[in-house]
Amino acid sequence: MQLKLGDIARRLDAGLEGDPEITISGVAGLREAGPEDISFLANPRYGPEVSASGAAAIIVGEDFGGSFSGALLRVTDPYAGFLAVLKEIRPQTRPRPAGVHPAAVVHPSAQVHPTVALGACSVVEAGARIGPGSVLWPGVFVGAGATIGCDCELHPGVTVLHDVRLGDRVIVHSGTVLGSDGYGYVSSAAGHEKIPQLGSVVVEDDVEIGANVAIDRGTLEATRIGRGTKIDNLVHIAHNVTIGEHALIVAQVGISGSTRVGSRVVLGGQAGIVGHLEVGDGARVGAQSGVTKSVPANETVSGYPAMNHDRARKLNAHLRRLPGIVDELKRLQARVVELEREREHRGERIR
User: Fold this and answer.
1) Cα–Cα distance for residue pair 142/165, rounded to 1 Å
2) Whole-angstrom Cα Rg for the chain
3) Out of 162, 239, 246, 309, which one is annotated catalytic?
4) What is the pLDDT of residues 111-123, one digit of tens each?
5) pLDDT tens for residues 23-64?
6) Taking the alpha carbons of 44, 307, 325, 350 in that order, is the dihedral positive or negative?
7) Whole-prediction pTM value?
8) Catalytic annotation on 236?
9) Which among 183, 171, 177 has a CA at the least distance from the CA of 157?
10) Hey, how many other C-beta atoms are within 10 angstroms of the C-beta on 23?
11) I need a surface site. Which of 21, 66, 299, 313 has the fewest CB within 10 A?
12) Which CATH number applies to 105-308?
């Protein structure tokens, strides 16, 4: 699709510095953009690349003070503005399957809405329910008594085990398992006896779950994922965990059992949280952090063990200086020994 720069400016309510008749037919990053592309600057660290960009126009913040030979569109949020333009110029047009593939297997007692699309080798077991407009790509398994809401999309190879409940507009990517048994055993001299995992998993509306994620069912109640939460690839969420609304959980995060994660929490990549803790609303946990105690609401923590981010930065700065400090300490110790020997040689008494 082609758009005039003036039309883009009006749709974004942007301040335009340049020719409104310029035609935009593509979107690209600052380095890759050509003479018919629009780009954006959301992170100040890439500011030096603006002047060298070949883009026809760049979406920038209202306070941008750099130089650029092309057109500028000034908005409050450049990333959101670029996303809006991207959706218009390059709308997603993935083919959507329709109907039930002859190789799909649906139990007679399952309730599948007529508008549902079931791919080849998908399986829907007894008592499961799938709401209007949902798409199950090939190889999806839906266990007995599971519920999938309206307009959901389950990518190839997703496993939704028995009694798991998905809300509306939930997206689950390939290889993810929802409702696997929690890791619970009673140890004795005879070995490790498995604790039955009798709960379920509840995923609320508008959640997106990445590829190869494992979310365990609760021991007695439900592991719960709040509305609007977005989970990246390779995340493990253990039994009885509760995650609030609109949380962001980045790749390879591990959350141990019975931990409560609040709303709008951000967990950076590879962060690990031990069990039975609480991460308050709006808290932020840095990448590769090890959370060993509860985090207050709106606190930012990092490091291992995780602590206030500013304190962790100071500690890391001191640690980087440690080799030099040790060398200086050795030098001072040697000087003290030297001074003591000099005093002894002069016959002075050392207290």
Assistant:
1) 10
2) 28
3) 239
4) 999 999 999 999 9
5) 999 999 999 999 999 999 999 999 999 999 999 999 999 999
6) positive
7) 0.85
8) no
9) 177
10) 10
11) 21
12) 2.160.10.10
